[in-house]
Amino acid sequence: MSTPLKNDRLLRALRREPVDCTPVWLMRQAGRYLPEYRATRKAAGSFLAMAKTPELACEVTLQPLRRFPLDAAILFSDILTVPDAMGLGLYFAEGEGPKFERPLRSAADIAALAVPDMETELRYVMDAVRLIRRELDGAVPLIGFSGSPWTLACYMVEGGGSKEWGKVKALALNEPAAMHRLLDTVTDAVIAYLGAQRAAGAQALQVFDTWGGTLSPAMYREFSLPYLIRIARELKSAEVPVILFGKGNALHLDALFASGADAIGVDWTVTLEDAARRNGGRVALQGNLDPAMLYGSPDAVRAQVRAVLDSYRDGNGGSREGHVFNLGHGLSPDMNPDHVAALVDEVHAYSAR
Ligand code: CP3
Fold first, then answer.
1. 317: alpha, beta or left, given left = phi > 0 and alpha = psi -120 to 50?
2. The pTM is what?
3. Which of 121, 296, 302, 331 is packed most tightly, with the most Cβ within 10 A?
4. For ligand 1, is residue 298 a contact (CB within 6 Å)?
5. Is 134 assigned a catalytic role?
6. pLDDT band of 95, cuts 50, 70, 90
7. Cβ–ligand 1 contact at 337 (below 6 Å)
């Protein structure tokens, strides 16, 4: 288990230690923009078949690393594995994204939820983590992940994606006690899930609060933030850093910097200069190139990468330490892998100390 890492830039940056250049990984670095991913998915028959077969999950996790000198692997899985294991019945309707057969419809549904057993119901995830660690053989660290309680609750109550998230927000407004009970149970499940990934070999953990930014500030402080804080505090460890990523979290950075997490991931609606200034060196920062910049030419991508790197340095007292380069959200299927190559190359070349 303890093969020393050949490339530990990510873990050093997350601890705000000096590195030879800024580490980079990309949200959804394994995915449909890669032809080799599309081939594996076609052979597997479906996304879920791929995610639930450790050998295939391992294969697609490693695909982007064969193409680009990325500084981390991210487990190939999905945030909705947890509600699936809680009995909601995850499926993907062609072209419609994720859906649940049995969404939560009442306080009684919520009261009946239980934390799944990680080494039985979610064993396929832990087996994938163990297999990927073995195959990586210490090349780069492996990041495990989970959805945030609020983001998971969004899908569990709506039964799928939504523009307005009207059902879950109505539940929060009309039955706050049931909503908090749901968030509490999901938080217990998230902590057990991330703890099990860590025990299986994950070397950093990221929580995706994808939909926290859809909440008003007061609702965010009641229904998302306290659960993120509980996760950060209960998973605190010297060895395995915790990253809290939130889309649209700029308004709440001061609270997040004090959450107990080792790093905060931000989207592109805030400059890293502003975020780093407000942070004052308390935690590491991850982000935050607008993924749409990848539609520009490779030269334009490189210029945008330099601007993000400089923005962080300018807000961090002239130092590049404590920054993990990433996008502000995930890669899209129609992005060009050659532009991703330019991005990764420019991060390393321009930030070399
Ligand atoms: O490389 C990686 O980043 C690791 C893999 C990963 C996936 N999903 C694979 C995936 C990760 C980290 C996730 C997290 C996830 N899943 C989130 C949070 C991250 C975010 O984007 O904010 C959310 C909200 C989900 C739920 C989910 N899963 C949606 C909305 C979809 C449909 C997306 C789409 O564009 O169709 C999925 C399916 C999914 N998860 C895909 C991938 C690569 C596409 C599946 C396919 O091949 O069709």
1. left
2. 0.97
3. 331
4. no
5. no
6. confident
7. no
